What does this fold into?
Amino acid sequence: MCSRDVLLKLFPYLSPLLIEEIERQPDRVVFRTRVRATAGVCRCGESSARVHGRYIRRLRDVATGGLGVVIELGVRRFRCENTRCPAVTFAEQIAGLTTPHSRYTPLLRRVLTHIGLALAGRAGVRVAAAVGISVGRDTLLRMVRAVPEPDASEVEVLGVDDFAFRKGRHYGTLLIDMATHRPFHLYDGREGEDLADWLRGHPEVKVICRDRSSGYAEGARVGAPQAQQVADRYHLWANLGQAVEKSVNAHRSRLAEPAPDEAAESLEVEPAVVHSPDELKIVTRLREQHGAAHELWEQGMSKAAIGRKLGLHQATIRKLVSARSADDVVAKSLQRVHIVDPYVGHLHRRWNEGVRNATQLYREIQQLGYPGGELAVQRHLRRYRTGRGHAPAVGPKPPSVRDATAWIMTNPEHLRDEDADKLHRLRERDAELDRLTGHVRKFATMMTGLHGDRLEDWIADAEQDTLAPLASFARNLRRDLDAVRNGLTLPLQLWRR
It folds into this structure.
């Protein structure tokens, strides 16, 4: 065992104790100690040497060398001699080592609290076990809850945003200190009246950075009329993205690149039937069955006997025997009209426009009078997906609305060469999408360069354009013009990306 001097360097808070024994166990080290002092001090400040009783107190400490440390401390309980003190007896406490009713030393409690704050329950338990500290997840969480809340300092620049307790159903409001970008308060609900009530108790707020909610705008105006409102740029960009996606969706049929030969690939004319390998096998089988059925019929066998011998239904045998040649059987089989056939032209056209969802196409031809079910449409579209049968000539799959929106909303310098080339061809084909891209890039330049003075010109240009979703977004900006201009001028942002 090491000397007392070495132990005190490792565990300086053991200096007031007399170490009687050190025991090494497989998973821990146990120090058996007792207090050196002859008297204890009550919480009333009076010292006492009258020992009322003794007991063993076990304290866990931080691990050393991967082994847990347990301090078995012989504690004395004294009788307080101050007649005015409400405590009749008291147990002695060692500064830096014990606290009332605690099973952990202050050092171990601080370590576990930090682990709990960083990793919470299960993950914190695993990390603690890796360094030789066994603890339960509930204990870690209780230590986290016991951490006192920091004193709420005065906030001059306030951030306001909502969050979901349960998305789509239950929301709350988060208040952020924009100086530190740390949340410091939250409350249930996201109504403007709740925000106004909170702001009335904090007249020191000078700037409110918020999302585009009209409720928060009204609450900030009523509760803090002295404060300057700032529309958050992240939310502005998100709102613009929604308008762009709606505009692209309205031009969805134009996203596909034109076929090389429009005349040869006309979508309104039914393509010629091309027999696949599977259809050729059917033809071969019909010919073989026709030959076998006629051979047995000429031998004098009945149609029922022929059916039993060939494993075919009697109705099929009647068709085979009645047909003068195998070509008649094949022709009748290939001339059967499918229930989807009258609507193939519409399916071809929509398929090449990029609509590949069977349920959507089924609903479209239903409106045109299609009497069948969705399963038949799915089977027909399976030919298109695999290239079998009379599937239309399919070129490269057109970009999705989400892909095209992402290309328009992404900084041109950050676009991949392939995506930049696709966007360039898309802008050449569609003048409206070309103008949409131009509006978005002007707004991005205005937002990143903090050119709020250009806002009204941008709104006027967008309102005059024929892109309805973008014009609606621009008109909506006018309703919150001052806050939007401040958001595009002041270097404030709720969430850092």
Notes: Confidence is low (pLDDT under 50) at residues 261-280.
